[in-house]
Structure prediction request, 221 residues.
Amino acid sequence: MNKQILLTADGSYTVAIPEMNITYHNMHGALHESVHIYMVSGFQYILPFILTETIAVFEMGFGTGLNALLTLQEAIRLQRKVYYYTTEPFPLTIEEAQSLQQDKLLDTGNLSMQLHEAAWEEDVCLNEYFILHKTRQSLLELTLKTQFDIVYFDAFAPTVQPELWTEAVFANLYRHLNHNGVLVTYSSKVTVRKAMQAVGFVVEKLTGPKGKAEIVRAMKK
Prediction:
């Protein structure tokens, strides 16, 4: 797939796949979108509910690595241990990752590139607070062996990857969430919310980032 690096409205970069007419982030601001959905509505929201030493995060769609980088920043800032497991069947090249300039944007030294250069299919300890595990397996093929506190569900839209927005997929994720665990995603389509509710999630709609009216946070009660 041919990929293009595009500048979004908040000064951060995203990736576009012209032949599929999709971008990895909202063009109103890639950074703003990730912070609003996955950090504020997800990671920061769930923190008070987590009593264990390590916070377990599952991300569907490593993509540009922005969600992982923001979570790594939070782990260091809060001095909280994070185990971060993420899937990405079609990873960016190192050159593409460098073109995103995330370390420069967030003043993170070379943390972004450490994430992209980390080995696949194994646990990689990036520092005392963050262990990363990247897999190229599709979520449909993956056998999860860990219980998670939070899921960042960042697959391509239901119109592009309908097979990933089904009751079967959400049921699998529900089983691998701890009690009071949450799943956050940018899609608030009725079919998505109904699929989540059908497997036991308590679903709420939240105000979305600029350019997106609503997002979803689903909790395992």
